[in-house]
Amino acid sequence: MPTRILSGIRPTGHIHLGNYLGAIRSWVSMIDQVDERLFCIVDQHALTTAEDAKDLRKNTLTIAAAYIASGIDPVKNHIFVQSHVPYHTELAWYFNCITPMGWLSRMTQFKDKAGKNKDQAMTGLFVYPALMAADILIYKATHVPVGEDQKQHVELTRDIAQAFNNYVNTNIFPLPDPIIKSETARIMSLRDGSKKMSKSDPSDYSRIHLLDDDETIDLKIRKAKTDAEPIPGSAEALGERLEAKNLLSLYSLFTQKSLAEVCLEFEGKQFSEFKPKLASTLIDHLSPIRSTMHELLADEASLLQYLKKGADAANAIACKNMHEIRQSLNMV
Ligand code: AMP
Ligand code: TRP
Q: 36-41 and 78-81 as β-strands: parallel, antiparallel, unpaired?
């Protein structure tokens, strides 16, 4: 069976190092191994939380620029905006009709975002995972590369695919597999090593943004939380020193060295000595991406052209699949 990957990022807040390492960089690494690749900017998902929908246009273009600047060629891959392909929301409706509310109530992202007062939560937030399942299954994607926090949603997508297949008595949808790389599954906050780096953290110092300039990257790394102990000679000896582990892991991810090698390299040193090395490594890697993002954002007409090309290709695949889906439902 041909392989087709689909993944997406919500155009909310500032795109950060967690999105880059957990999602985009891992997509880039698998481009040559799969037959077809779709990378979506999921703007309709951003609307499920009102505070995130500010600056939707600007954020959508920024994510598109981040995809391209990080090495996703918009000619060889389909980069597109979710709302440019209306078949996603149509399929989401069919999925709403076969997905028990109990399945959606168990989603941890819903529980976190809805908070205590679930009755006041918006319906869109509740059915968000059915739209995500539609994003994936409208293309019959076989693999979904994501960070650890999305595992539950991809598992639900499999359950929805199976429920729909049973309902129409045909194996119309594949059961997609999540691809989660353990080294980059959960990049942690720079302020609290027990929390993941996230767009919604109120502190900008908790994360590095892809558009941060060199001075800001340097400052955020200098201010990153650590402890007073020196760096140990082995990864195991890091134990529960979560912030220390996160910073050393970041260095390892950008230098292609193992965590064990990084510990040996800095054994006995203080973080004050390590941090400038980490900052300059990050700057070397991120500043070319940032410059290309600025160039792409300055030429909006070309960026929109790439997105149109992506949407045309995505619409062609989705239209064909939707025809088959409607037929399976006995629609006239
Ligand atoms: P979001 O910003 O929630 O739309 O996330 C987009 C993608 O980035 C998803 O695949 C997430 O799993 C991934 N991601 C977000 N935050 C992190 C993080 N701190 N570490 C690893 N992956 C992340
Ligand atoms: N739910 C994902 C997140 O919060 C974003 C997303 C929406 C997605 N649709 C998708 C990811 C389809 C992968 C595939 O990060």
A: parallel
